[in-house]
């Protein structure tokens, strides 16, 4: 889905997002507007800040 749905959370909430890659190519997620405090490895371009989610694979962001 592009763009993805809007996620609304309150300060202090815990957000868990499971991404399932149903594409035929690698994907990664960039979280616009989310400060990456000690989790920069889970945001951005593949093989730069994180490994890609391979076709048929999944990744759970916490």
TrEMBL record:
InterPro entries: Cu-oxidase-like_N (IPR011707), Cu-oxidase_fam (IPR045087), Cupredoxin (IPR008972). SUPFAM superfamilies: Cupredoxins. Transmembrane segments: none annotated. Residues 1-62 form the Plastocyanin-like domain. One of its GO terms (molecular function) is oxidoreductase activity. Pfam families: Cu-oxidase_3. Belongs to the multicopper oxidase family. This is Laccase. The gene is LAC90a.
């Amino acid at each position: 889905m592009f763009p993805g749905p809007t996620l609304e959370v309150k300060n202090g909430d815990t957000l868990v997002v499971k991404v399932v890659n149903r594409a035929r190519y690698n994907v990664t997620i960039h979280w616009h507007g989310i400060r990456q405090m000690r989790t920069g490895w889970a945001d951005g371009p593949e093989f730069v800040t994180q490994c890609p989610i391979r076709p048929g694979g999944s990744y759970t962001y916490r």
